[in-house]
Amino acid sequence: MIFDSELIHPYQSDDLIRIGQHQDGGYVINNRVFEHTDILIGLGINADWSFEEDFARHAIKDLNIYGYDFSVSKEIFHKEYISRILYLFSIKFLLRLAKDPQKTPALLKENYQYARNAGSTYRKFPQFFDGVRNRFFQVGISNEKTAPFIRFNEVVTNIQPAPAPHSIFLKIDIELSEFRIMDDVLQYGYLLSGMAIEFHELDIMWDQFSRIMQAAQKDFIITHVHGNNYSGLIPGTQIPKALEISFIHKSLGDSSLSLSKLSYPLPGLDFPNDPNKGDLSLPFSHF
Question: Percent of the chain at pLDDT above 90?
């Protein structure tokens, strides 16, 4: 395979803004999408909806949010919370503390924090996805309708009334299923103001990734790219195995397009997904 970094070379954009937390889960997108977007679709929620929450704070229009993830629910978060609490009082944990008394304070603090975070997630999830403006669906998205998955066209038809052109912003973080659904997604490109997508395992998926990126060029331009430092680099290259890529619809982009001459990551906008490791630099051939 030929790993060409020019495939992911972003275009110059002067209105980038970070949405979401300053680590894994946040994305850098174009501020101008808020002028057009009244629907946010989040494919892949897990225990972090900081992007959706922050997007709502920046919204100019009345915003409706649709979240999709087959792996989480209020009930699942409740079970995780109870499990964390019970573990603190379990024989297994007490034996672990007794095995190394010097580590007891650190272990108590760490596991108490796990339980506290689980409790916070359980409480805040139904507060945000309230079923009114912000709706959650415990299904996944794939290229076939087989429980617990539906196809992207059903995501679109779930929106009532029918969305206007360029009124939807789409976030995708679904652990390799992005490769299954992008053909379907791009058929609805005319409805999208922009997209923020995390592409995974590019060391083995590059050929498919390349085809998707070339197809996306019909309606979209890349305005930002960031490497996920959890995964490292494709061997023999300076391209990360996992990439966060932001797109804007061409009709909303700058009238005169020029490839960015900036160095990535961008100070003040980009932050390491894993805060305990250094960020990954992205070189392009014209630097």
Answer: 93
Task: Quote the number of domains for the chain.
Answer: 2
DSSP-based three-state secondary structure for 41: strand
Q: What is the DSSP string of 183-214?
A: HHHHHTGGGEEEEEEEE--HHHHHHHHHHHHH
Both tokens assigned to 106: 């650190």
pLDDT tens-digit readout, 222-260: 999 999 999 999 999 999 999 999 999 999 987 778 999
Classified as helix, coil or strand, 281 is coil
Are 56 and 155 within one domain?
Answer: yes
Same domain, 171 and 57: yes
Question: Is residue 53 one of the residues assigned to a domain?
Answer: yes
Q: Which residues of 144-181 are buried (b: 16+ CB within 10 A; e: fewer)?
A: eeeeebbbbeebbeebeeebeebbbbbbbbbeebbbbb
pLDDT band for position 287 (50/70/90)? Answer: very low
8 alpha-carbon distance from chain centroid: 17
Tokens of 99: 């095995």
